[in-house]
Amino acid sequence: MIPIGDNVFFFTRRKPVIIYVLIGIHLALFLWELKLELSGELGAFVNTWSIVPARISDAIAAGLSGNLAAWLVVLMRATCLVSGMFLHGSFSQILGNLIFLWVFGRTIESILGYGWFLLLYLLSGLLTGLLQVLVEPSLTIPLIGANGAIAAILGAYVLKFPQTKIDTVLPLLIIFIPIQLPAFFFLFWWFVQQLSYGIGSLNIPGGVNPFSLGYWAHGVGIVIGAVFMKFLSKKHK
Question: Which of 88, 92, 78 lies closest to 31 in space, CA to CA?
């Protein structure tokens, strides 16, 4: 099931500037990853800028034990909570995330405005990344991708427009059948789609995004997005 658009966005006049910027950044970094893969440097790059829960939890433990210098390491590791969400481990992962960002994000940006939408995107990515560290602190395999931020956008959209029909393409071999599905269906489909994100994987030594509890923790982004939208809806009444 491939969502391709909704009818809500076309009633707004606000250009999705932040969406354009985010898509540009994601694509530029993915192209950089492809370049590094060819030169054999991708593994080092991903391990440096991805979320590796064990590294963050070890640095925090060292800081709590009285090692003041370790808190500088914690701050450095914390930047990976943001940088990791702009990296992707496969063609299917970046394609799936960008499709959801385009279809559902344009409407949410038009409703929230540029600033609030960017805050939602970055904050949800940061919080889901932190949650991944908390639920699986000993994980040594990198976690990357904008999955948590995309989940938040989907959560915000479904809270606001649960019954809105989403124009969708159903691929059957070489035939593509156009259908319409209610927005809330994509809450289920988002989880199903995660299982396909290993298709077209980049050559990263040791792998990324194991299907463990830490990986699936980004699904909490759906709740974060819904709460964020609920809060702003009340605030602007």
Answer: 88
Q: Evaluate whether 175 touches 142 at the Cβ level (below 8 Å).
A: no
Q: How far apart are CA 130 and CA 82, in angstroms?
A: 10
pLDDT, tens digit, 9 for 90 and up, residues 41-88:
999 999 999 999 998 888 888 878 877 777 777 787 788 999 999 999
- Tokens, residue 91: 């063609």
Q: Label residue 149 exposed, middle or buried (CB < 10 Å: 0-12, 13-18, 19+).
A: buried
User: Which amino acid belongs to residue 4?
Assistant: I
Structure tokens at 227: 């709460």
Yes or no: say if 216 and 108 are a contact pair by the CB < 8 Å rule: no
Token pair of 96 as six digits: 């799936």
Instruction: Give the tens place of pLDDT for each residue, 187-226.
Output: 998 998 888 888 899 999 888 999 888 888 999 999 999 9
List the Cα angle 26/228/138 in 5-degree steps: 60
In order of start, what are the domains of the chain with their CATH numbers?
Answer: 2-235 (1.20.1540.10)
- Rounded to whole angstroms, how far apart are CA atoms 181 and 171? 14
Contact (CB, 8 A) for 30 and 19: no
